[in-house]
Amino acid sequence: MRANIIKFSKPETGDFFTTLNRRVNDYFVENKISRHANAAMIFKTIFMLLLYFVPVVLIITATVTSPWMVFAMWCLAGLGVSGIGLSVMHDANHGAYSRKQSINNMLGYTLNFLGGNMMNWKIQHNVLHHSFTNVDGYDEDIEPRKALRFSPHHPWMKHHRYQHIYAWPLYALMTIMWITIKEFKQINRWKEEGIIEAQGRTYGGLLAELIVSKSVYYVYALVIPLLVSPVAWWVTVLGFIAMHLISGLILALVFQPAHVVPEADFPLAPEDGNMESSWAIHQLHTTCNFAPRNRILSWFVGGLNHQIEHHLFPNICHIHYKKLSPIVKQTAKEFGLPYHEMPTFRSALYHHGQQLYNMGHLQPA
Question: 322-344 pLDDT, tens per residue?
Fold first, then answer.
């Protein structure tokens, strides 16, 4: 990966993104509202934090003693992990939650209390994924190594013929991989590529942060429940695993249909690193919305069903995406640009499954 050499074309005066930026800015000015969190967002933040921490506290204080109730608390905490990740941490680490960076940092660090690491996430998501969406060799979100094949540019293996079947249970392992080996592998790879230093951090400092934060996580989320909960140890272990299987599956099912679908482009970086399109137009070609009218889904997933709006304006709180969507859609139409959108969540999952099937059966030319 050589994430420092790709360059997108510069937008010209009167082009798509210049026009869109002006219209979006006008929307906030005319309605006299902030681009950041509002009262509804603050309520959601409190709800999602409680959805995770209340079940965990009930477990580690041995308030809940029935094995079935303890297991139910772990499952409920799994929903909380997803809710915090999608609706709170995500906005904060994009700097979209508040004008004050201290508040963004505080809420961004909630990821560390869920077993992940804020800095790792910022590098993989903000730097690599948002900058080089679906670009082969640059966007780590489309590179699950040998297990799955998302891009037509990736090597094909015989087992990929069945990935449309086995991918779904693999997705459930997402957060389990985060809390165990994935982030350690990432920093070793990024050290060789010079990405850590480019972000103003050192390998040793980031490694120490990983070790400390994960140790704290395992102590409060697993060791203490094993010591204090009156249920059998295996109930606690199964509950802990179930929490992560639930959160991992939810997160994957939200992120994958946004980019890994037949409608999305998977461009190769030119040898000279100069992309033909501008960054904003690239986002339109590689990103897909889904279920725009499903308010409950949109509320829980942090507006990430409006993935196009998120990619174009990651520094705007997701609470505004629904209102911005018609502006983006109309502007894209005026400039003859694509605006990929699936009508329902079900159809989005179907299209993702179609991409898995296609990539499992279509070998590279």
Answer: 999 999 999 999 999 999 999 99
